Amino acid sequence: MNEGREGLRSLPPRIVIVDGNGNITLDALDWMQEQSVDLIRLRYDGRVQSVFSASGYAADPKKVEWQRKTRASEPARVKYAIPLIRKKIQEALFNLENLLPDSPSRTKAIETAKVALAELKVSPPVSVSKLHGLEGLVAQGYFFAWRALDIQWKSTKRHPVPDEWKTFFSRSSLKWGDRYIQNQHATHPINAMLNYAYALLESEVRIRAIADGYDPSIGIMHDRISPDRHSFVFDQMEPFRPIADRRILELIRTETFSGADFDLQSDGVVRVNPELAKELTRWLSASHSN
């Protein structure tokens, strides 16, 4: 709570409950409505489970107005997006310089990232689409540099590992979707771990956005609006993606994996098995807190 007039503590505009269980009385709900305090219950992944509010809406109207106003202006969108992409490239550059093995692809990716940062400073793009293009060039070189990673495997006789798992080729999945290659359908263990890390990050960012009063479905840089696609969350995730990558890179450098750590499904999709998922959750949470 915040200090209000005459030293009294002011009530928060909303109370957010993440997952959990228990009971709350109707009297308590009535009191919260009288005090204009919204109660929002989220699922474990940050998606809204229920809202108790006079307006029936979880977000702060003023912040939603800012989202819509910013989204409607291309210069405002670019101004909002450039710091996010700049930070993302800076974090990716750190990974390239400190965590990825030396290779021609790494050298080229470092140069591309530095050129992009200089362009953002001297002659920034004037549209979000051009900004996406610049970021895409950096991302392409960045993940090409991952091909030099040395992935260690153990117990290969007991748990055989497909040949294609022994090296990393691409962030894109080899499983085709209806219209394009979909990253979410991982066909390599590294991509499966990245997808899991990004899913944890998405949940964390979604919870923070909702708690701060934003509408997660109204993206600014990512402009697709859908109740099921939280574009504003994807906006806010951008600078944190390479940090999630960093945790996976550190794990690859220090751990030896087993084929039993992953589940290869009949359609070729690779999933992280429950035991490794628990370890990844602990690893990512501990790394984030540090």
Q: Key features?
A:
290 residues; mainly alpha; three-stranded mixed β-sheet; two-stranded antiparallel sheet; 9 strands
How does the SSE layout of this entry go?
Layout (H helix, E strand, L loop, with lengths): L1 E2 L5 E2 L3 E5 L7 H9 L3 E5 L5 E5 L8 H11 L2 H25 L5 H19 L5 H17 L8 E2 L34 H23 L19 H7 L3 H14 L2 E2 L3 E3 L5 E3 L1 H16 L1
Parallel strand pairs: 3-4, 6-7
Antiparallel strand pairs: 1-2, 4-5, 8-9
Helix pairs in contact: 3-4, 3-5, 3-8, 4-5, 6-7, 6-8, 6-9
**CATH architectural arrangement of the largest domain:** Up-down Bundle
Distance between the termini: 26 Å
CATH class of the largest domain: Mainly Alpha
Helix content: 40-55%
- Taken as a percent bin, the fraction of beta residues is 5-15%
The overall pLDDT average reads 85
Total number of domains: 2
By CATH, the topology of the largest domain is Four Helix Bundle (Hemerythrin (Met), subunit A)
Which descriptor suits the 3D outline? Answer: flat
Can you give a write-up of this model?
The protein has 2 domains: 2-58, no CATH class; 65-289, Four Helix Bundle (Hemerythrin (Met), subunit A) (Up-down Bundle), CATH 1.20.120.920. It is 49% helix and 10% strand. The chain is built from 9 helices and 9 strands. The chain has helices spanning 26-34, 61-71, 74-98, 104-122, 128-144, 189-211, 231-237, 241-254, 274-289; strands at residues 2-3, 9-10, 14-18, 38-42, 48-52, 153-154, 257-258, 262-264, 270-272. The chain has a 3-stranded mixed beta sheet with strand order 3-4-5, sandwiched between helices. Helix 6 runs antiparallel to helix 8 (241-254). Mean pLDDT is 85; it is low at 1-8.
